[in-house]
Amino acid sequence: MGHPNGVPPARKTARARAWSVVGATTVAALTLAACSSSSSSSSSSASSGASSSSPSSTPAISATSFNRDFTTMASLKSLTAKGKGKVAAILPDTVSSARYTEFDAPFLQKAFETAGLTSSQYIIQNAQGSDATELTDAQSDITNGATVLIMDPLDSGVGAQIESYAKSHGVAVIDYDRLTLGGSRDYYVSFNNVTVGKLIGQGFVTCVTDWKVSHPNVVVMHGAATDNNATLFAQGYMGVLKPYFDSGKYTDVVNTADTWDPPTALTEFQQAYTAHPDINSAVIPNDETGAPIIKYLQTRGVKPQTFPTTGQDATLVGLQNVLSGYQCGTVYKPIYLEAQAAATLALYLRAGEKPPSALVNGTTEDTTAKVQVPSVLLTPEWVTTANMNATVIKDNFVPASQLCAGSYAADCKAAGIAG
């Protein structure tokens, strides 16, 4: 893909609905955003839904085997050679997050090709926010020879439809990033989303102390109710914050409606802030919904390190808001790990092999179907100025030259980041 460590430099871009797998160009990222959902409780466990050993011709693979150099994928060529049919990956949209075109699509492509799939053996598409398109793409992919489907559902309704159709055609399905509630997929690959929420909550608590906010009056925000991850994020951060609210140390002033749409989130925050002018902090579940809120606070004369906010996805704007003292931190989820894990699972299923238990390292509850879904659960990280160099900069997830551009040069220098 022509970029250091296989990670493209960050820049905002629009992309057509379907990724052409022949000649698709790796692009890089301005934003990465959260994906998420309503209210139920789902959690992970250390047990695995798959427990056989890997085939003797295939290296032992675990959930921690993947790296930024994609060397694990290169070791899977013998497994790839055993497989039959195509692997199709359908991503949901380009609005809730730029991550899908900037990271997921090129990283999936690199994972497939490094493992030995040819361009005629895989498909990568984006449903552009349309349930009908996501369903049609899945049906077309199966007609065109897909034996494994990697799907990030726009919502559980269309996800369950796709999974039912796939099952009736003998096609294995991997839920990618979001879990389809009431679905019938075989496996789920994501970061541990309850842990994501816990990191947000813990980061907020630390920030309140560090920024010397004597009594936080908090607006608590939530991601879209149609996205199961939002439920898990909220489970995580509310689990951390509830004792503070219950004790009266913090005040839960208002909980806004569920959304991943930045303009809608801004409107909800403005309404809360107008109604409750003593609000002095906000728990926000991702960088993209937080960015316009921070700009609004700046227009209201709010000074750095006085109004704690949180985020997720380590976007360029989110990291710059962290550097400038308007955001406590952001949850970093290295998408290159998630893409490789999903591709590896797909290769096992395509070859008719059961994935090893060290790879399928947990379960996640489908609270609608009342089943535990075998899962690959990856570990997210909380990023502040203290560890930007060791995480997002080291991974070239956001290049220092972009992070430190313009007015952020001084902030980078203060944080020890060479732009």
Descriptors for this entry?
419 residues; alpha/beta; 3-stranded parallel beta sheet; 13 strands; 37% helix; disordered N terminus
Please tell me the overall pLDDT: 88
Q: Main β-sheet: number of strands, strand sense, barrel status?
A: 8 strands, mixed
Helical segment tally?
14
Terminus-to-terminus distance? 23 Å
Biggest sheet, spatial arrangement of strands:
1-3-2-4-5-6-12-11
Low-confidence stretches: 1-56
Query: What best-fitting shape do the alpha-carbon axes yield?
Result: globular
Q: Pairing-aware structural class of the strands and helices?
A: alpha/beta
Q: Give the SSE string.
A: EHHEHEHEHEEHEHEHEHHEHEEEHHH
Helix content range: 25-40%
Strand residue percentage: 15-25%
Write down the Rg. 21 Å
| Strand element count | 13
Describe this structure in words.
The chain has an eight-stranded mixed β-sheet, with helices on both faces. A three-stranded parallel β-sheet has the order 8-7-9, sandwiched between helices. The protein has a two-stranded antiparallel sheet with strand order 10-13. Helix 3 packs across helix 11 and helix 4 (131-143) runs parallel beside helix 5. It has helices at residues 71-74, 77-82, 99-114, 131-143, 156-168, 193-210, 228-247, 262-275, 287-299, 316-323, 335-350, 389-393, 400-403, 409-415, and strands at residues 18-19, 86-91, 122-126, 146-151, 172-176, 187-191, 217-222, 251-258, 281-283, 330-332, 362-366, 371-378, 381-383. It is α/β, with parallel strands linked by helices and 419 residues long. The chain has 14 helices and 13 strands.
